Automatic annotation (TrEMBL):
Keyword Amino-acid biosynthesis: no
Lineage of producing organism: Bacteria, Bacillati, Bacillota, Bacilli, Bacillales
Protein name: MATE family efflux transporter
Lineage top rank: taxon: Bacteria
Membrane-crossing residue ranges in chain numbering: 12-33, 58-80, 92-113, 133-153, 165-186, 192-215, 252-275, 281-301, 322-343, 355-375, 396-422
Biological source species: Lederbergia citrisecunda
InterPro entries: MATE_fam, MdtK-like, YsiQ
Main location: membrane
Length: 463
């Protein structure tokens, strides 16, 4: 079998989705970068406080994205089968779960902000700045959840341009309001981290309004109405839980693991927190194609299975793996070349600057592993229907290997932040060996009867 698919439609679909979703992602990370740059220019304590607060936002993000990924996997198959009624039913289930997550996270953060932040660091100045940010930003959680699910629904039917438009408008609004409210321009008071939180909250509300208008007035594929979100079918809900609960749990433990990683570095000083925040933010922007390729794969594989073209999946998977490696190599080179350019915009100590450079050097190497194993497992394997494998794999690597080893490095052997960071990112390379075997055995391709709305549960042979 040839390593490369010879269908133009395959490459057109994959690269179109990857580019548009990637542009959306780069704008989204640009929002985080603008927050980092502007708050980082205010003070290092403010930067560290917001960085820790954003870890909580990241847990919410992973949970909501987990709900959304379950929606995309199922809805993209229904899209391939042209079953719009089931897409609406899945949308209702996803929206209900996402709003519930947003409300729970709001309650925890609104009532216990200092207690949550104290899990990450004991620095009272960092906790103080982070609390100011959280007490405002938590009101954006439900708006974020609704917007994310609506975008996931649209992405499942290959409507992706609205996501880019939405992210662009959010970036412009956020940057302008950050400039005005953090430093107190145009007669406004200087609010510091509170100004940044107000800017982000305002941006989330505006993007929520825009996506609601688009779905109501301009969508020509699903025609969602408000009443559709009150129609939950128990049989389909059970199917979604069977398929989607491992994704939600996997994303939750991954988001929690990232928070624990930050806590480990956080107990190594404010400089390590700031360096990690800068490095991961820059990495997120440079590596947009990596994350976008996984999202594109989910839609491509799901739609193909829904169309009944299961035999194409084997050749698609082989070609996709080659594309992932090319994307990873290019991303690593780009990150290594540009790693020092953004640091001049930060008002940070020389120690934080040095650590940030070291962290980004590590990431420029490990991104090659990330670019392969992440879309291979979360894109190919998950969308193929084997959602439990990724959960088990992430749990073993993160909670039984990486985090215990990193905690030993930091607290028992008292090694440097650099060595600890290398240990924290080592799973990105190690998972590649698992991904190669798992993907190329082709025992992850599963389907369900979209007409009967029941899980088939049968592993298909892609001959």
């Amino acid at each position: 079998m040839s390593l490369f698919v010879r269908e133009k439609s395959f490459y057109k679909t994959f690269f179109t989705l990857t580019v548009i979703i990637g542009l959306q992602n780069i704008i989204t990370f640009g929002i985080n970068l603008s927050d980092n740059l502007m708050v980082g220019g205010y003070s290092e304590y403010a930067l560290s406080g917001v960085a820790l607060a954003n870890q909580i936002q990241f847990v919410l993000h992973m949970l909501v994205m987990g709900v959304g990924e379950g929606v995309v996997i199922m809805a993209s198959r229904y899209w391939g089968a042209k079953n719009i009624v089931s897409i609406k039913k899945i949308s209702s289930i996803g929206m209900s779960l996402a709003i519930s997550v947003g409300l729970i996270m709001w309650a925890i953060i609104f009532f216990f902000p200092e207690d949550v932040l104290s899990l990450f660091t004991k620095d009272v100045n960092v906790i103080s700045e982070g609390t100011k940010f959280l007490q405002i930003i938590c009101f954006s959680y439900v708006f974020f959840a609704i917007t994310s699910i609506l975008l996931a629904i649209l992405r499942s039917v290959e409507t992706v341009k609205i996501g880019f438009i939405l992210s662009t408008s959010t970036l412009i609004i956020n940057v302008c309001l950050n400039y005005i409210l953090i430093y107190g321009h145009f007669g406004f008071p200087s609010l510091g981290v509170q100004g940044s939180a107000i800017a982000t909250l305002t941006s989330r509300i505006i993007e929520f309004i825009i996506i609601i208008i688009f779905v109501k007035r301009f969508d020509q594929k699903i025609y969602l109405k408000l009443r559709d979100f009150f129609n939950i079918e128990f049989g389909l809900f059970k199917q979604y839980i069977n398929l989607g609960s491992p994704i939600i749990m996997s994303n939750f433990i991954w988001g929690l693991a990232m928070a624990v990683q930050t806590a480990i570095l956080g107990h190594m000083g404010a400089a390590a927190i700031a360096a990690n925040s800068i490095a991961t933010t820059v990495f997120g922007i440079v590596a947009v194609a990596v994350f976008a390729s996984a999202s594109a794969t989910t839609v491509l594989i799901g739609k193909t299975i829904g169309e009944g073209n299961v035999n194409k999946i084997k050749s698609y998977a082989k070609t996709l793996q080659i594309l992932y490696l090319i994307i990873g190599f290019c991303t690593g080179v780009l990150l290594f070349i540009t790693k020092g350019l953004v640091l001049d915009f930060y008002s940070i100590s020389e120690e934080a600057r040095s650590l940030a450079l070291q962290f980004m050097t590590v990431l420029s190497i490990t991104v090659c592993g990330t670019a392969y194993q992440m879309p291979a497992l979360t894109g190919i394997v998950r969308s193929g229907g084997d959602t439990k494998f990724v959960l088990i794999n992430d749990t073993i690597f993160m909670w039984m290997i990486v985090l215990p080893a990193s905690a030993l490095c930091a607290f028992v052997f008292e090694l440097s932040p650099l060595i600890t960071f290398i240990c924290l990112k080592s799973d990105q390379i190690l998972k590649c060996f698992v991904a190669i075997v798992k993907v190329n055995r082709f025992k992850w391709i599963r389907t369900f009867d979209s007409a009967a709305d029941e899980v088939d549960g049968k592993i298909l042979k892609a001959n």
